[in-house]
């Protein structure tokens, strides 16, 4: 029976993965121009936009990572998804409109309109590097899942991972990530709802869960401290609002309202993923305390769901990780193609050449990422991975808000200096600073100080003392 169940898990997982890849490849039919590839020619509706956001933001951290933390801390694990939802609300309420009206494809392009081309070029280089670090982490996660679940070698797991990522975005670009995101959302909700129902039955309802955790700290979002909890959510807001992949979805809407509504739909759908993953992690703490925390969600699926349903659930988790990597790679490729290739390397490139370069860039980033993983770069990622969020946030967040809310008061020179200096300070703080103070906050405060200082300086020049 165990062998049959294992085979059914394997078969169900593989069929689901291949079917989703097929839909990703099919999106190529709608791609005729580089605008189709990068932002869907700005014709996407709210559901396609939300699918793109969910396809990237809901990854391994929202599911496997949340269940792992819930196994250890309870409801405090929900801050990742709550922060992600808050970021989507910020996108919808304040940022979608200005980005839509700018009619550009990348955040560096948007920033360069106010701070100059040098600022846009610097932002493109720094954020591409920061996102690349995150991509490697996602590929490492996917490789680990394939090796542990299917007992294949690292080489095969890595090739399969890269192959699936390319099937998602190489052909359809942004339209591919949007389509995969919508499919992934349905699969993930199906898997987590089935799992949640099983947990509810095994706990004998909410009362049984409360009885299993008499210490109410397990249900306290701020069990790690109010400041620590709020800081986790705030970090997610800064990270998402500063990442090309998510803002690219705002550029892609057919109008301002569709972009806003797409962000709002994503904000509505993200928290339930965190809640269900949290409840599953807590159940595993009670029923199987011997479980390795990071395996809590996967072990639950294998133990408690029907093999066919479990296979779909495992596939949904794998797609979550692969979808995040795919969206991030597309974001890097968009910045490199629009901000570097078409402006600095080949300014005469026609649309066909840009479309081809998009795909070469995606292939190159995927292969280079794979080489990092193959070269056993685990220690590098563990040491530097935490700086990915800090580098993105300190480079983009404050200059972006400056353009949106204080356009007439900001200094172009101040924006350039903030983009260059703040991430360096964050990097140095991460290496030499106080470990209890997140380098993200050091960089953000430095960015604010630089922007304000140069704005005051230019204002004094405009109104010299008599």
Defining key terms:
81% helix, globular, 466 residues, mainly alpha, Sodium/glucose cotransporter
Radius of gyration: 22 Å
Note the beta-strand portion.
Answer: under 5%
Specify the overall morphology.
globular
Which residue ranges are poorly predicted, with pLDDT under 50 across at least 5 consecutive positions?
A: 379-384
GO molecular function: transmembrane transporter activity
Pfam families: SSF (PF00474)
Main location: membrane
Keywords: Membrane, Transmembrane, Transmembrane helix, Transport
Question: Briefly, what is this?
Answer:
The protein is mainly α and 466 residues long.
Task: Describe the secondary structure blueprint for this structure.
Layout: H1 2-26, H2 34-39, H3 46-57, H4 61-73, H5 79-102, H6 107-115, H7 117-150, H8 154-169, H9 174-203, H10 205-212, H11 226-241, H12 244-252, H13 256-287, H14 296-304, H15 307-345, H16 351-374, H17 378-384, H18 387-405, H19 412-432, H20 439-462
Helix pairs in contact: 1-8, 1-9, 1-15, 3-9, 3-12, 3-13, 3-15, 4-13, 5-11, 5-12, 5-13, 6-7, 6-18, 7-8, 7-15, 7-16, 7-18, 7-19, 8-15, 8-16, 9-10, 9-13, 9-15, 11-18, 12-13, 12-15, 14-15, 15-16, 18-19, 18-20, 19-20
């Amino acid at each position: 029976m165990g062998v049959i169940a294992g085979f059914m898990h394997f078969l169900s997982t593989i069929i689901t993965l291949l079917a989703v890849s097929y839909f990703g490849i099919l999106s190529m039919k709608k791609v005729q121009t580089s605008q189709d590839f990068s932002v869907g020619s700005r014709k996407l509706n709210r559901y396609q936009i939300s699918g793109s956001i969910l396809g990237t933001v809901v990854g391994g951290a929202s599911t496997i990572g949340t269940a792992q933390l819930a196994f250890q801390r309870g409801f405090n694990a929900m801050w990742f998804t709550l922060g992600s939802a808050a970021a989507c609300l910020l996108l919808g309420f304040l940022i979608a409109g200005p980005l839509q009206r700018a009619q550009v494809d990348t955040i560096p392009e948007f920033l360069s309109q106010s701070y100059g081309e040098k600022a846009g070029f610097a932002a493109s280089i720094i954020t591409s590097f920061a996102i690349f670090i995150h991509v490697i982490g996602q590929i490492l996660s996917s490789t680990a899942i394939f090796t542990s679940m299917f007992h294949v070698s690292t080489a095969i797991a890595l090739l399969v991972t890269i192959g699936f990522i390319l099937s998602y975005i190489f052909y359809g670009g942004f339209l591919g990530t949007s389509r995969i995101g919508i499919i992934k959302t349905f699969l993930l909700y199906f898997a987590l709802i089935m799992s949640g129902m099983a947990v509810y039955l095994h706990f004998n309802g909410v009362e049984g869960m409360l009885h299993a955790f008499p210490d109410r700290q397990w249900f306290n979002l701020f069990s790690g401290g109010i400041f620590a909890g709020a800081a986790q959510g705030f970090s997610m807001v800064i990270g998402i609002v500063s990442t090309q992949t998510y803002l690219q979805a705002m550029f892609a809407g057919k109008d301002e309202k569709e972009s806003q509504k797409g962000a709002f739909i994503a904000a509505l759908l993200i928290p339930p993923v965190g809640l269900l993953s949290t409840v599953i992690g807590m159940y595993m703490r009670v029923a199987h305390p011997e479980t390795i925390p990071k395996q809590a969600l996967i072990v639950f699926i294998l133990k408690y769901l029907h093999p066919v349903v479990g296979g779909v659930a495992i596939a949904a988790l794998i797609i979550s990780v692969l979808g995040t990597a795919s969206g991030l790679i597309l974001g890097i490729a968009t910045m490199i193609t629009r901000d570097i290739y078409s402006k600095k390397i080949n300014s005469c490139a026609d649309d066909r050449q840009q479309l081809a370069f998009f795909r070469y860039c995606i292939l190159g980033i995927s292969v280079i990422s794979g080489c990092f993983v193959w070269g056993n770069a685990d220690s590098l990622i563990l040491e530097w991975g935490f700086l990915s969020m800090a580098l993105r946030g300190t480079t983009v967040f404050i200059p972006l808000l400056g353009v949106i809310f204080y356009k007439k008061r900001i200094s172009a020179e101040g924006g350039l200096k903030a983009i260059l200096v703040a991430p360096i300070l964050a990097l140095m703080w991460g290496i030499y600073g106080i470990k209890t103070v997140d380098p993200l906050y050091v960089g953000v405060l430095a960015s604010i100080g630089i922007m304000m200082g140069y704005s005051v300086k230019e204002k004094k020049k405009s109104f010299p003392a008599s």
